[in-house]
């Protein structure tokens, strides 16, 4: 697989990563099977998808434990990204950016992951009660201590910008400007896909201008862009899509022209090419520092996603994607 570089430290990863969250958090709990997920992670490494993206809050904790079982055997094959800064309660999630907590959380993640160093340690969310510089400084100390190789920041939640009328990622860019004064940012993780292109306006250019890597979260639109979801089929109550404004039966039906467009492009590249692979190839085409991190828990999708790294879209393909209708949701 093609290799891509993250950040000024020139950390190399496979062009397509693996989002591990669905294996134990947020998606269809009835289909979460540990052994199947372990096979999926091994398959990703076999295919060259070396970036494994997890977080202490996924589960919570169980996702890191699962990834750790693979790392115990294949640490040298993997690039490990995990996150800190969010605590999961019974009915709520809260931010914690206190330096003491960050240090303890890192040690706990290292134990669960069965490794002595985290390749990319990301701040999941800034704590409104703690200056972000203090949190970032504690994370930088972990680099000095040899427990972490590089630091990243996850984008601020998506919906606040829609309500305020501000550009979606203005808040994230302000945070980045602040923490960059403390210690270099190696990567930013934010949603970027054919149906969520807001990062192209300002956030991705900010990263490109500074040599910062960009991890594309949800590059397959939570599965919608694969063309495998049926409008009205419904989701289990614990599935995040059951509450997502783009996954009502009405909105899924309204957004089918997007999938139809991806399917047309796929057919031009061969019978084996899928809409999901076109969606990932589009993300890869947005810049050499962009690494899509599609989440899955099944080997078949891991393999399909990895093969998207070899798909090259033409200028005509990219123009056709650009001409697709914008995604609709219940806020429209």
Folded structure, characterized:
It is a single chain. 38% of the residues lie in helices and 14% in strands. The chain contains twelve helices and twelve strands. Strand 3, helix 1 (34-47) and strand 4 (51-53) form a beta-alpha-beta unit. Helix 1 crosses helix 2 (62-74) and helix 2 (62-74) packs across helix 3 (99-113). The longest helix is centred in the N-terminal third of the chain and has 15 residues, at 99-113. It is globular. Residues 159-165 have low confidence and may be disordered.
Topology readout:
Blueprint lengths: L2 E4 L4 E4 L3 E2 L14 H14 L3 E3 L8 H13 L4 E6 L1 E3 L4 E3 L3 H15 L6 E4 L8 H13 L6 E4 L4 H6 L5 H11 L6 E5 L11 H8 L2 E5 L31 H6 L1 H13 L6 H10 L5 E4 L5 H9 L7 H8 L10
Helix pairs in contact: 1-2, 1-11, 2-3, 3-4, 9-10
What is the strand content?
A: 5-15%
Oligomer: single chain
Major sheet: order of its strands? 3-4-5-8-9-10-11-12
Task: Give the helix level as a range of percent.
Answer: 25-40%
- Taken in chain order, the helices and strands follow as EEEHEHEEEHEHEHHEHEHHHEHH
Q: Which regions contain 5 or more consecutive residues with pLDDT less than 50? A: 159-165
Morphology? globular
Largest sheet: 8 strands, parallel
Distance between the termini: 39 Å
**Helix/strand/pairing category:** alpha/beta
Q: What is the total tally of β strands?
A: 12
Report mean pLDDT, rounded to a whole number: 93
The rounded Rg comes to: 19 Å
């Amino acid at each position: 697989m093609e290799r891509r570089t993250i950040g000024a430290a020139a950390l190399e990863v496979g062009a397509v990563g693996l989002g591990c969250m669905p294996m134990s958090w947020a998606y269809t709990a009835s289909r979460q099977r540990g052994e199947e997920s372990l096979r999926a992670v091994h398959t990703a490494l076999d295919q060259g998808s070396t970036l494994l993206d997890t977080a202490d809050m996924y589960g919570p904790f169980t996702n890191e434990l699962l990834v750790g079982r693979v790392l115990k055997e294949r640490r040298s094959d993997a690039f490990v990204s995990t996150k800190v800064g969010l605590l999961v309660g019974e009915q709520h999630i809260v931010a914690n950016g206190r330096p003491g907590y960050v240090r303890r959380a890192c040690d706990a993640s290292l134990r669960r992951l069965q490794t002595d160093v985290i390749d990319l340690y990301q701040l999941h969310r800034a704590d409104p009660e703690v200056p972000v510089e203090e949190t970032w400084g504690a994370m930088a100390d972990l680099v000095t201590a040899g427990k972490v190789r590089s630091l990243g920041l996850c984008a601020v939640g998506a919906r606040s910008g829609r309500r305020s009328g501000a550009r979606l990622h203005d808040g994230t860019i302000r945070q980045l400007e602040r923490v960059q004064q403390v210690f270099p940012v190696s990567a930013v993780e934010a949603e970027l896909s054919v149906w969520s292109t807001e990062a192209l306006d300002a956030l991705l250019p900010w990263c490109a201008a500074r040599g910062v890597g960009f991890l594309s979260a949800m590059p397959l639109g939570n599965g919608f862009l694969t063309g495998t979801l049926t409008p009205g089929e419904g989701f289990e109550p614990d599935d995040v899509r059951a509450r997502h404004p783009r996954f009502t039966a009405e909105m899924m039906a309204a957004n089918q022209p997007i999938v139809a467009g991806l399917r047309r492009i796929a057919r031009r590249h061969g019978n084996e090419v899928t809409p999901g692979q076109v969606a990932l190839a589009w993300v890869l085409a947005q810049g050499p520092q962009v690494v899509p991190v599609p989440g899955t828990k099944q080997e078949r999708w891991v393999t399909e996603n990895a093969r998207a790294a070899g798909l090259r879209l033409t200028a005509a393909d990219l123009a056709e994607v650009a001409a697709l209708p914008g995604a609709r949701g219940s806020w429209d």
